[in-house]
Amino acid sequence: MNLSAEEIAQLVDGEIIGNTKSLIINFNRIEHSGNGDITFFSDESFRKYFEQCGATCVIIQKNENSIPKENQVFIKVENPYFSFIHLVEKLATKEEEQKGIHHTAIINETAKVSPSASIGANCWIGANVVINDDVVLKPNVVIYDNTRIGKGTILHANSVCYQDTEIGENCIIHSGAVIGSDGFGFIEEPDGSYTKIPQIGNVKIGNNVEIGANTTIDRAFVGSTIIGDGVKLDNLVQIGHNVEIGENTAAAAQVGIAGSVKVGRRCRFGGQVGLAGHFEITDDVSLIAQSGVASSILKKGVYGGSPARDRLTYFKNEAVIHNLSQLAKDVAKIKRHLDIE
Fold it and tell me: Which of 55, 175, 286, 313 is in the most buried spot, having the most CB atoms within 10 Å?
């Protein structure tokens, strides 16, 4: 990036305060920014960094009354965070994809690969696979038979799609993700051994889905494991067989969802949330990090704890637990006063 503050202000439709010709060459966090950097300030918890900030340009809120330092310029906008993100999207250098098929890729003769797709080194593509326009497979991607990948989707290195997987358009699947591995289904025999239940379903992924590194999504026993449009899954998430996740739901790292759970739309799961199997989560439910859910949640809202409770009950319980040691001392005093063993 090599732009003047005036040019950047035009890109974010902002009001300039300071030297409009100041040169901006890099993006940076507010606490680490310096000469030539552009950053943003929108959260009061970062005000100390804002006051000490050495960035050449800071995107701030319209109602912020601070005056820029010497050789510093402010750009006022409605939402500094969103404006900064949009600026990054517009200006950040993007890797140029080399269209075509690398000579080391192995592609079954029955597969259909769009001429505009990019197939990286050592990729393996099975029978009857369909790869649509502008799909990108980074090196070492493995695509089993009968898989379909929609337009503009990117699969990063070492990701794997098992047979019959369906992936929509404009998805991003990060390195090490495994889509369509067998569900965890076994019958316990009288002698304590296990007999494997065949997993003959598949995984269906909607459009604009992002799946983090080393996340796993199990194929269905029968039917489909379904990931709706706009779903965002962080790294190291486990989705069990026959799970259904509604559109625009997001799950942070290490979330685990057991088989046959149906999750609604626009839900938010914090890190390490765990859901037992065979129940339903309605739309617009948020689960605080490390919550454990063992039964259906049929009313939207924020829940926490294990087992999960509504937010108010959860925080009340946490307050009691926080004072538990003092409560134990108080009970001991009462028992001694009453001469109770």
Answer: 55
